[in-house]
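Lecture notes, structural biology module. Today: joint structure prediction for complexes of two components.
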Amino acid sequence: MSPAKSRVPAIEGWFTLDADAPALLGSRCASCGTFTFPKETVFCRNPACSGTEFADTELSRTGRVWSYTNACYQPPKPYVAADPYVPFSLAAVELTPEQMVVMGQVATGVTVDDLSVGCEVELVLETLYEDDDHEYLVWRWRPTGPAPDDRRTPAHPGAGHIPAADGEGGGSRA
Amino acid sequence: MPESKKVAVLGAGMHPWGKWGRNFVEYGLAAARDALADAGVAWTDVGFVSGADTIRNGYPGFVSGATFAQALGWTGARVASSYAACASGAQAINAARAQILAGLCDVALVVGADTTPRGFFAPVGGDRTDDPDWLRFHLLGATNPTYFALYARRRMELYGATEEDFAAVKVKNARHGLANPNARYRKEVTVAEVLASPMVADPLRLLEICATSDGGAALVLTSMEYARRHGPSGPLTTVDAVSTVTPRYPQTVIEMPNFATDSAAAAAAEGPTFKQSVAQAAYEEAGIGPDDLDLAEVYDLSSALELDWYEDIGLCKEGEAERLLRDGDTALGGRVPVNPSGGLSSFGEAIPAQAIAQVCEVVWQLRGQATGRQVEAAAVGITANQGLFGHGSSVIVSR
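The predicted structure, tokenised, for the full assembly:
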């Protein structure tokens, strides 16, 4: 029996490894308060600010889809694709407190049919790729609301969707 | 506008767009000789060579100005090489224009050419974990069409654009490109054919995303005084504006190759978007507005992006691009034809040559030499383009 592979981030320092409630790690300028993702560590990007000190900050775990798409064809390297290739979806997500939009792949199995502009998503960690020793983790966005299927058939146990409980306000954008 | 801010376009030349995989220098050289012949200017009279770089062809591509100068035969001309992603060609034009307007040279040759690999553009090689262009492929599998598709979906959501609208842009541009001898694709398509092509990045399909191409384009730019002495009699074709502005903070539209937008938490997002500001700066410099245009060449990296440009260059208000398209305003014979050359849709993208090629098309249109795709009595045209890392450009040409 082979030992379980260790789970490591695909990139160091971009997100927390909290399995239940992971968060992206951005930075916040100590002078002007602006957020940056990935982290800014040297000079503030706000032209009106000369800040050089930044606090690591966990970005909001939930947001609303600004737009979305998918990757029907295998992206070129350095993307490490499964063989055979499995298409995936991507979303650009608006984070209200930070007033910024952050990209991410969408959780495994979620298709563009499950997404809409304005729908709420939350951050999860999933395996991006693996080798003999490690699973490399990356952040992904997963819809929090009921899936379209669930809306059609309210009783749909076992779909594995997490109910919207983050309190960022409900309803899709007008 | 004052003549002291204008430069003359004496020559325009191209090597046709295609996919041959030959050395990019060959395409650039053919375009340069074509432009010099068109201008009636000897290579030995060129005082400044302005190259637009390619990053996929090794060292000669990084020093393209010198590469082209050597290939044409060293003459001691001054040289510069520009890289600005998709806007590289416009940067090269602007470098030449600045030399001429500063009185440092009379005649400049601008050249851009590329040889491209098949398939999606990938980042340049090596493991570069601090390069967002490398990381977006590695961590997200986000190709260029990923970003185009995000904009397209957003248009559908905000303005009610349909897949048929996006397909109609492709149909229009394919028709425009039919008679263009430099276009790579010269074949009419129907909306049904576009919608039957494979989905690449939902909602964008294969026929709606521009290919990567080989090609070369060149311009001979001169001072107004030189053009009067050595150029043809009659009205001169002039470059009246070259805008290469950067975005303003906070840039709140997600842009290649970034993972996130700027935050608007500390500084409010005000004023025009980046793409709007690119065109506005050109209008301001030329002292004209969108109503003065006879045609536009815009960067249709995807069919849907062309609709964004209608609004960004001020042909209509936000949300009205679909109406403009459906009314035929942007087709040949319409109020202000867009991409009469056939656009990137018919050419594919040869990155450093593309912004130069856009200007070549406007020049030929203003001279009445755009056989089979001529915009009647064209006197003013604009080009617009956007690349990665906050690069964009817009050039205004008049006659």
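Point to remember: Chain A has a mean pLDDT of 86.
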